[in-house]
Structures are given as structure tokens and as C-alpha cells.
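C-alpha cells for chain A. Residues wanted.
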């Protein structure tokens, strides 16, 4: 019986070994095993947004669309987040701060034109934010919700 659990991804291959032999009766040895690069590099972008004038007892749907911009102004998708902001019970409309909306940005997707093997490049992004009320007290005459 074979069980298929989907795709298996190995982001970092096992390093190539360097053969080292220390001779008999030799107390110590210095060996340069070459260069090594940092693996699985990436960044985490954390956004905060204030949704203005949220009415009491209304949930809000919030969407954040993140793109990365190359040197020619072309945009590449980097993630979408959708969040339900719960209703508040204050007496008036108020601003609601939504904190810590996180995006994971692997360096292998870097379009800055620099090396993808380092985090020395400046990467440019655009965030677009959409918000609307989920709840409404409107009802059509012939519809029951």
C-alpha cells in the first residue's frame, strides 16, 4: 500500500562533504573547508493599518494585497490576506487599528536584480488595502435572512 501525501519540498540540499584525514600521532590540524552561504533567506514584512470610521455593531472585511516591484515598475504578486474585524460596541463610529499583518518574503522571489543568495538588496513593495462592512441592516421586502 502506498500513501501519497502530496508534494515534498526540500529547500536546502545536503551540503557536499569535504574529506579530511588527520594523520597518526598528529595533535591538531587546520583545514579550510571553503565557503558556505546562508540558506533559506527571506524577510518578514509586518503591516499595521487603521480602518477609519467603523460603525458600532458592524463587522468589517479587510483585504491586503502585496506586490513586489522590479526596476521597470512591473509588479509581481507576493500575497493576499483577508481578515474579519469583529464588531465593536462603542456608542459611535471609531477608528480600528489592525496590527501585525505579516507577509513572508523568500529571497528566491527577489526581483530587484541583485543576488538572490543574500539579503543585501533593497526590495520594493506595494500594499493595497480594501475594507468594507460585512453587516448591513438593509433587507429586501421579499427576502428573509
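Reply:
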Amino acid at each position: 500500500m502506498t500513501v501519497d501525501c502530496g508534494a515534498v519540498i526540500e529547500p536546502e540540499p545536503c551540503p557536499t562533504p569535504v574529506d579530511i584525514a588527520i594523520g597518526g600521532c598528529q595533535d591538531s590540524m587546520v583545514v579550510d573547508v571553503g565557503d558556505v552561504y546562508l540558506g533559506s533567506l527571506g524577510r518578514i514584512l509586518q503591516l499595521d493599518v487603521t480602518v477609519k470610521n467603523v460603525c458600532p455593531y458592524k463587522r468589517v472585511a479587510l483585504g491586503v494585497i502585496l506586490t513586489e516591484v522590479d526596476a521597470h515598475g512591473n509588479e509581481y504578486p507576493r500575497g493576499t490576506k483577508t481578515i474579519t474585524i469583529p464588531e465593536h460596541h462603542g456608542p459611535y463610529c471609531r477608528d480600528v487599528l489592525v496590527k501585525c499583518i505579516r507577509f513572508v518574503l523568500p529571497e528566491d522571489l527577489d526581483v530587484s536584480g541583485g543576488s538572490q543568495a543574500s539579503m543585501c538588496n533593497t526590495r520594493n513593495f506595494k500594499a493595497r488595502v480594501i475594507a468594507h462592512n460585512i453587516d448591513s441592516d438593509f433587507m429586501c421586502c421579499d427576502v428573509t435572512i
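The mean pLDDT is 91. The longest strand covers residues 42-54.
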